[in-house]
Write a structure and sequence with these properties.
By secondary structure, the protein is mainly alpha-helical. It has one domain (3-164). It has helices spanning 3-18, 31-46, 85-94, 101-105, 114-122, 127-135, 137-158, and strands at residues 54-55, 64-65, 70-71. A three-stranded antiparallel sheet has the order 1-2-3. A hairpin with an 8-residue loop joins strand 1 (54-55) and strand 2. Keywords: Signal. Residues 1-23 form the signal peptide. This is DUF4375 domain-containing protein.
Length: 165
């Protein structure tokens, strides 16, 4: 993916969000700043380690993927938290990212257990997915940014003190 193209998309998304006519909270951030934020999230959340872009934590029934620890449920799993990975995948695809084979083949997480996930990971079966996630950090940051904008608008709409959000 070309950085210039991605930065152009970031700039467009930011300018569109900043030009909304209603009085919604707006976080003003340039494409360069957004890219730096994505890199910082990556460092903070993974320790700068590619391997930590795909994890399945002890006590959880799902893997967490990407810089935002996006949840990906297996088929039939009760959703106790908001599943965000499928939305991220769609967003990445809509923004020109070429999906790795595993995402083309599976709409839900293909591992039934944490052990199966870790076995697949140790065999290198998640390498293409983790590299894909590393290569799309900038778009993941934009996805997080857009979710933040939407969340701030919702919070402001129900707040007694919307100007303080």
């Amino acid at each position: 993916m070309k950085l210039v193209s991605t930065l152009s998309k970031l700039a467009l998304a930011i300018s569109l969000s900043l030009s909304l006519s209603f009085a919604a909270p707006n976080i003003q951030i340039s494409p360069t700043e957004l890219q730096r934020v994505g890199e910082q999230i990556y460092k903070n959340e993974t320790g700068g380690k590619l391997d930590n872009l795909a994890v399945w934590n002890v006590g959880e029934n799902f893997p967490s993927l990407g810089i935002g620890h996006f949840i990906w449920y297996k088929a039939g799993e009760a959703a106790h938290f908001e599943e965000t990975f499928p939305s991220l995948v769609l967003f990445l695809q809509q923004n020109g990212a070429q999906l790795p084979a595993i995402l083309k083949q599976h709409r839900t997480a293909p591992w039934k257990t944490r052990e199966a996930f870790n076995t697949a990971k140790s065999r290198g079966e998640l390498n293409e997915l983790m590299q894909f996630l590393a290569n799309t950090k900038d778009l993941q940051a934009l996805f997080i940014y857009q979710r933040l904008q939407a969340a701030l608008q919702k919070m402001q709409s129900v707040s007694t003190f919307p100007d303080f959000i």
